Amino acid sequence: MREIRLDLLLLSLALLFAPAFSDLLLSKVDRRIDLTSHVVRITSTLKVENAGTDPVSEVLLAFPDTQAKNIAYLTASTIEGKGKTKSSSVSLPIQVVHPDGMPPSLTWHSVSLLKGLSKGESLTLDVLAVFTHTLRPFPEKITQAEIQRVAFQESAYYLSPYVVKVQSLTVKHSGQFESYTKLENSRASGSEIKYGPYENLPSFSFSPIVIHLVNNQPFAVAQELVREIEISHWGNVQVTEHYNLIHGGAHITGEFSRLDYQARPHVRGASAFRNLVAKLPPRAHSIYYRDEIGNISTSNLWGDSTKKLLEIEPRYPMFGGWRTSFTIGYGLPLQDFLFQSRGIRFLNITFGCPINEVVIENLIVKVVLPEGSRDISVSVPFAVKQWEETKISHLDMVGRPVVVLEKTNVVPEHNQHFQVNYKFNNLSLLREPLMLISGFFLLFVACVIYVHSDLTISKSSTAYLAKLQWDEVQATVQQVLNIINRCLTIHGKLEASLRDLSRTGDVQACKSARKSADSSLKELSKELRPVLILLQSSSQAVQILPKVEELVAKERELQEKLMLKHSTVVDCYEKKSGGREVENRVASIQQKITALRQEVDDLLEIIDEI
Amino acid sequence: MAQSVKPISSPVPDAWYPTLAVFMLAIGLVVTASFFIYEATSSQRNRSLARELTTGAVASVFLGFGSLFLLLASGVYV
């Protein structure tokens, strides 16, 4: 405690000798400090009045250097409209400036007003400052049975280069406190400690106070969080988050007794936290929670149409100083996050971590865009460090472009939407199936080459020549079979014409069918002759030749019998004799035909098997 | 800001992925079978390279798309 007081004492001494500054006057300052979580939020409502003559377009905010390096998020907004017609608040740009003639060890932020504040006008400014690592655990090491107490230092008077007319300070905490610096006009009531109102204090007035309070909120600090967002135009945005968590509160000394913890967790282990809740978009699917060892099954998921809540429990409760690391992944539907406007596609997704109240010391967001994306640009509402990489993933040829954004000291207020714009031609989507198709086609080409290639070593050995001849014989036999099959189809046509005759009685059509069948059969027999000659001349065909000749002979017989039957039936129809007569005459011929057909079929089978 | 901002979704509806995968793979495998049957039953002389290559091309198109939809249906969003 002593060292803290000395530092601030020096600062306040330095400030006592600082000059007054500028014409602005803060007529009312209300500050509310929220100490209920491990992230400190200070909301200041300043009523700025221009007491000078020139219009002023910026308001300066001062922070001591020790506090300023812990600022994670700073916004200022003003409410347009007065009284009942208050419209939404407009946030104003803030920059770090270094004005001259100021007391040392102060950091300055300048809020630029939208329109200058002219003489006599006043304006209400809402400033929200979020600080991390400002609640110092005090004592720094505790045992499992003790509760966690933290110390918080601030100034009871608002540190400002302007004169403040009326100011007050309210500190909100979780309900229990050990001690606080008692100044005049300070009181503690319920879960609030009030300082003020103080009137007419000079500029740069500073009065250090220390509040020692009890805070058992989960001090979840992620030392590194890598968020990888992979876009696939086939319908999915996959988010993978790798966490490296540490409990940032008072370190635990002595032993950890699991028995005590399980029996009475609120007494033995009040400062530990057991689970964390992450808020995911409503249509997240395929959610997993794992670490290096494997899947962690202690998790719960519930949700409604606006969000999905994932409650995860690490493998052990987190006490002060303990670490854990895990990975959470989930898939999101593409149409909720990827949009197109005027030829440019953009991804609109949240930047920070979905887990409640986690301070991230180093956040790296990687957005992996599909192959073939060009003209990539990023728009983030706050300052980040960015660069590009390549990632090789499924079915990639050159790799996918990755935009990497890095930011340190991230708090839940940074969980805003950011956009990544790029151009993508829809035809590049076909690249992936084309790769698969060409892969399969190469397989088929390899098969074709293998079948066509002749890999025999000796081209003049007898076995090789015999094989060649046998191949030729097989090809010739195929041809013969082909011709026979065609003859058989013509026979079928003839039979069909006979059936037509019995249905329609059209003799002329039957006769013409007979004529065409005759001519095609003659042609086929002409084709057959040279093939048979070839077969007879080759020596390898000795076994198969008799069967083939038998087949040809039988087929010829079949042909003759069929022609006979056909002409008989046609004659009968011309003579207009009855159905019974036709049957009688044809009966014997029909028997022979069926027998012959059976033999032809058998022979075909035998030849096929050879 | 809201000048014709349209959400982008996949060119083929998500719900069709498994059905498309099954049908395209089935047709692809049937054409592959016909290719291999042709290779096995034709002899050196009356094999036609054009027929082999076209059958192979058709089979590889169907197999390629079928395996793409199979990957997408099983959750590997390539």
Structure description:
Chain B: This is Dolichyl-diphosphooligosaccharide-protein glycosyltransferase subunit OST5. Chain B: Its main location: membrane. Chain B: Belongs to the OST5 family. Chain B: It is found in: Membrane. The complex is a heterodimer of chains A (610) and B (78). Chain A is of the alpha+beta class and 610 residues long. Chain A is built from 8 helices and 31 strands. Chain A has an 8-stranded mixed sheet with strand order 5-4-8-2-1-12-15-14, with no helix packed on it. Chain A has a 7-stranded mixed sheet with strand order 21-24-18-17-27-30-29, with no helix packed on it. In chain A, a hairpin with a 2-residue loop joins strand 25 and strand 26. In chain A, helix 7 runs antiparallel to helix 8. The model of chain A has no long low-confidence stretch (mean pLDDT 85). Chain B has 78 residues and is mainly alpha-helical. Chain B is elongated and about 65 Å long. The model of chain B has no long low-confidence stretch (mean pLDDT 90). The chains are: A alpha+beta (610), B mainly alpha (78). Strand 25 of chain A pairs antiparallel with strand 1 of chain B.
